[in-house]
């Protein structure tokens, strides 16, 4: 039998020996499980929180009324989904068809946007990289395209052109937020400066028609303020899980945002159509009240801004003009304008085919220019004025009716791509309405046989000239013409010969007046009576010039008479002239005095008499 062992510790099983370690392992497992459960709970809570916020945002989106309010909701969305509350947001509209981009609104971002306020081609840099690499991120298959640009690392992924521009933009941001001498001023804190401007968040939602909505956001302004105050910059997202939930929520909001953008845009277009329709109705009603061509032009130019609204309060039209073709001079001149300097109106004359308006007049084809400055070499001649080459869009359409082209109607906007083909077609309609009204007014106001103004519209025309004479301190000559022994011509040669005499005399009077039109401000030739009486009213002349003009007409009528009468018979005319304001300040008085002067000329016929208020016999005489 073996002896009992003494002085040694009792035997302990392996399980007992491992128990302390196992307890630690179990405790560690329990802690991990608690942490995991807490993480799951936190993530579930966060998901519920984000879900609730998405629902709230959906409700807010449904109440938006316009694009500006939509952009305000974008900022609220970004902030409420966990991004920094000091976020700066800029929204852009991007055209998939033209690759143009322009700013919709800016909030909190500092500095000027190169996309504001006019559309501009997509320039190299972060935005171009974001849009061009959308396919790699599943866009447009994915509902929403999102990219968080890390300016330290993502620049390496860009093309050389985009990278160079992006780095230049980062340098410009550093200067903008920290000053031109930021390297010296923050020599010991340059890393924080770069960190403050590190991230830019880009979001792209499908929009309306060919347009997408592109959002750019960051916390640069807030971080720059922190660094300047001696605090470290804050990240755009404090937690990775929040970032993922943030992106997921944005994708969930894609459908309501896109639907609302479509609804807002449709509403905007419907409102603009109503505004345009109302303005067109106003134009037609106002033109029906116009009594002279100049009134028609002023009415049309006055309503053009309402015919091309940008919003209910703002128009795309900033400059407009009517150019008419002068057959005597063979060129187009501005007869009415809005937004143009007086010297441009006075000195702008175009030959058919010259510049945009001349080309439209010559071809009869309306033209739309999306960017006048960009297309200036193809559209405008070298002698065009600098103001005519200013950046912006323009349209030019012929004023055309019944095969006759009167001139050209033009509009300009400082915004490039302000007008489209749709607006050009509508502008043609406006010019057609004006042309038809001009033609009807011409038929109403002018004698069918001679083409001269009839007495009633002629009186309105002279009264307008008298108003101008009063405002500008000019004189007006009222020349009355009466063909001598016209009844004898009708009796001897017949009424057909009399009609030829009237037509030939009309042509002579108009030709002489046209030859001298540059010597005075304005003139009009009127068929004053039922037969052989005419009036030439001349604005901006004096007594000697009026006498010379009348004498030239008298001699021309006498010289031409052998062409429409038999041998030995001559047509002559007696003339009477009165002058505003020397011989009266109202038309009735001026006409009466010219009539008295004609009566004195009839004493010997074929002569010109200037009204003399000191001649009592002339002063009291009237034609029976």
Side by side, the strands of the main sheet go 3-2-1-6-5-4
CATH third-level topology of the largest domain: Beta-Lactamase
Structural class: alpha+beta
First-last Cα distance: 178 Å
Tell me, rounded to a whole number, the average pLDDT: 83
Identify the overall geometry: rod-shaped
Reported CATH architecture of the largest domain: 2-Layer Sandwich
**Roughly how much helix do the residues carry, as a percent range?**
40-55%
**Sheet with most strands:** 6 strands, antiparallel
Description:
It is built from 20 helices and 17 strands. Helix 1 packs parallel to helix 8, helix 10 runs antiparallel to helix 14 (421-445) and helix 16 (486-493) packs across helix 17. It starts with 13 loop residues before the first helix and ends with a helix. It has 3 domains: 47-262, GAF domain (Beta-Lactamase); 290-445, Beta-Lactamase, CATH 3.30.450; 455-620, Alpha-Beta Plaits (2-Layer Sandwich). It is rod-shaped and about 170 Å long. The strands form 3 sheets. The protein has a 6-stranded antiparallel beta sheet with strand order 3-2-1-6-5-4, with helices on both faces. A 6-stranded antiparallel beta sheet has the order 9-8-7-12-11-10, sandwiched between helices. Helix content is 48%, strand content 18%. By secondary structure, it is α+β, with helices and mostly antiparallel strands.
